[in-house]
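Q: How would the C-alpha cells look for this protein?
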Amino acid sequence: MLTTLRTHWPEYLMEAAELGAFMVSAAVFSALLYYPASPVRIPDEGDLARRVVTGLLMGATAICLVRSPWGRRSGAHMNPALTLTFLRLGKIAPWDAAFYVAAQFLGGVAGMVAAAALVGPALGSREVNYVATLPGGSGPAVAFVAELTISFVLMLTVLSVSNTARLARLTPYFVGVLIATYITFEAPLSGMSMNPARTFGPALLGQIWSALWVYFTAPPLGMLLAAEVYVRMSRWRGAHDIWCAKLYHDRESRCIFRCAYPSA
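A: Here is the predicted structure in C-alpha cell form.
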C-alpha cells in the first residue's frame, strides 16, 4: 500500500482535481443559467433550452478534462463506479482503485467548497440547490432505473469505443456527447449523476441526503453490468482483451494501469 501511494500519488491528486474542476464548472454554469439574478439566466419556461445549454457546457467540460494533460495521465475516471468497473475487469490494481475512489470523493467535496467560495449565496438558492442530484417527480424507483440505464450505456460505450483501434482516440467525444444528451433528456428523472462522488459533494455541502442510495447503487450496478455484457460479447466475437483503464491513452504520459497498449 505505502509503495503504491508513494509511487502513484500524483495520479490520485489529478483525479481529485479533475472531479473538483467538474463540480466547479457545474456550479458556475448552473448559477449563470438558473439563478434569478444572473444576467444570462434563461427563464423557467425555457427549461429544455437551459438543459440543452447546460448539457453542451458540461459535455465540453468532460471532454476538456479527459484530454487535458492530467486527464491523459490519470485516465480521467473522476467516478468511483468507473474505477470499480475497471477493477472488476482487472485493469487497475486494488490499492490504486482504493486510492482513486478516495481521491474522487475528496475531489467532489473540495470542488463544492471551491464552488461555494466562487459562486457565493447563489449556490444555495432554491433554483441552483448546490447542483444536487435528486429524483424527479416520478420518485426514487424511476430515478434508480434511469441511473442504472444511463450508467450501463455510458460504460458499454466507453469499453466498445476505447477498445476499437480506429475509434479509441474519439472516446472523450463519445463521453461528452452522452453527458450532454443525458443532461438534456434524462436529468428530469434523476438529476443525471452516474457518479457517487459527484452526488456526495453537493449532498454534504448542502446537507441534502434525499435518496442518496440511488446514486450509490445504480451507477456501479449499471457499469458493472455493462462490463459483464462487453466481456461476453468480446468472447463471442473472439475479440482482444481490454487494452487499458484510461479514457484517452496518451503514449507520452506514464500509465499506472495494467495496460496492453505497448503490446497492441
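Residues 123 and 129 are 6 Å apart (CA to CA).

The mean pLDDT is 94.

Upvote if useful.
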